[in-house]
Design brief:
The chain is mainly β. The protein has three helices and 33 strands. The strands form eight sheets. It has a five-stranded antiparallel sheet, with no helix packed on it.
């Protein structure tokens, strides 16, 4: 080590005070070392970044500038999910989960999950990963593990609140399914047996107090989906709503109310008791959707499955359609940040205003891009095993 060499030379210097040549070499080494340390301090070099850049070859350029971090290669065969979490990106691959700082290029926190079918849920400063179809789960925050455990049976679906409370459904022992809610200390706050169908989706609100789940069953040769609502502390459901001939894609709370997204409809449950249709069953064909940081819905649909014309809509917290943009081609992915909606097509990316639908930014891309997320002024894209930054051009005002 350099420090050992210096100490060794110091001892040699003391033993041979009359060796002028050694004295000159020693002082020369000290001066050079101090100069290097001063330069590194000024530029604040990240030694982990240097190591990563060596292992990743020529794709990364070592620099203090964020622009030189990308493209950033992941040590993985497949990216399963990439989700903005605060000002970071939560990236789940087939091997690991990581909290990635897109500004510095540093991995702030990571672990290997070892799950065969991992599913990621994020809320606030927490994220929950479960092995769907198996019983292994874990809860983490942005810097450490909270717990890692095995549930009593195979997990079908789960959701997470900002308090770290988890709702999940498992196969029942003497019923079709069982619904549980546990806090971050693994204390059970709700256990509810379900026998009128199989649970296909669950949701919990930000506070961890309001819950919803969807079951599927057949009746008179028809597919029946039922939405159920229940609160922590209740012994029975608040309400249930039957929806015929639709498949539930997601349940999601926005403040106190629940969005219900089907493959051919969108509804909203208010106060856990009343169902209000936004798009009636059969009126739309769901293409893709996402949520704003406030839980509002950004939804892309067509009027029938083979239509080239698609429509991008922003639906606010009270279920009102505030913005609609006609899209000339079918998009692959949609996301939202700040006051914007960003849509990924096969050959381009377009950012629209959330409030009036005007085009704000555009960029070209290729079909290898699978997901996009805009954080602040930068648009981060995912392609294969790489995270990259897409240069967006501001739309000129006419």
């Amino acid at each position: 080590m350099p420090n050992n060499d210096v100490r060794s030379r110091n001892r040699t210097y003391k033993r041979k005070k009359n060796a002028a040549k050694t004295r000159r070499i020693l002082w020369g080494v000290i001066i050079v070392t101090v100069a290097i340390l001063i330069i590194l301090k000024i530029w604040e070099v990240d030694f982990n970044s240097i190591k990563r850049s060596i292992t990743q070859g020529s794709q990364n350029v070592v620099s203090s500038s964020a622009e030189n971090i990308y493209p950033y290669s992941l040590d993985s065969a497949k990216i399963f999910d990439i989700t903005p979490q605060n000002d970071k990106l939560n990236i789940m691959t087939d091997i690991s989960c990581m909290i990635f700082n897109p500004t510095t290029g540093n991995v702030d926190y990571t672990f290997n999950h070892g799950f065969s079918n991992p599913v990621l849920k994020t809320a606030g400063n927490y994220f929950f990963v479960f092995d769907q179809g198996n019983d292994r789960v874990r809860l983490d925050n942005l810097s450490e593990n909270i717990y890692e455990t095995n549930f009593e049976n195979s997990v079908l679906c789960a959701d997470l609140s900002k308090t770290g409370t988890v709702i999940y459904a498992v196969k029942g022992k003497d019923t079709k399914c069982e619904l549980y809610v546990i806090n971050k200390s693994l204390k059970k706050e709700l256990k509810y047996k379900v026998n009128d169908g199989y649970i296909v989706s669950v949701a919990i609100d930000e506070s961890g107090k309001r819950c919803a789940f969807a079951t599927i069953n057949s009746k008179n040769a028809k597919l029946i989906t039922t939405i159920h609502t229940i609160n922590i502390g209740d012994k029975k459901e608040r309400a249930e709503f039957n929806l015929e001939e639709t498949n539930i894609l997601d349940l999601h709370y926005c403040e106190k109310d629940l969005f219900v997204i089907g493959d051919n409809c969108v509804s909203r449950v208010t106060s856990q008791k009343r169902l209000k249709e936004i798009f009636k069953i059969g009126e739309v064909n769901t293409c893709c959707f996402n949520y704003t940081k406030y839980g509002e819905l950004v939804y892309v649909y067509s009027k029938y499955s083979s239509a080239n014309e698609n429509y991008l809509t922003y639906i606010n917290s009270v279920g009102k359609i505030k913005t609609t943009v006609e899209l000339k081609q079918k998009p692959k992915y949609v996301s939202s940040s700040s006051n914007e909606m960003t849509v990924l097509f096969t050959d381009k990316v377009i950012t629209y205003s959330l409030t009036d639908g005007t085009v704000k930014y555009t960029a070209e891309c290729d079909d290898s891009v699978s997901a996009i997320h805009k954080l602040s002024t930068k648009c981060f894209i995912c392609r294969h095993q790489v995270i990259d930054v897409l240069e967006m051009k501001q739309k000129e005002k006419k």
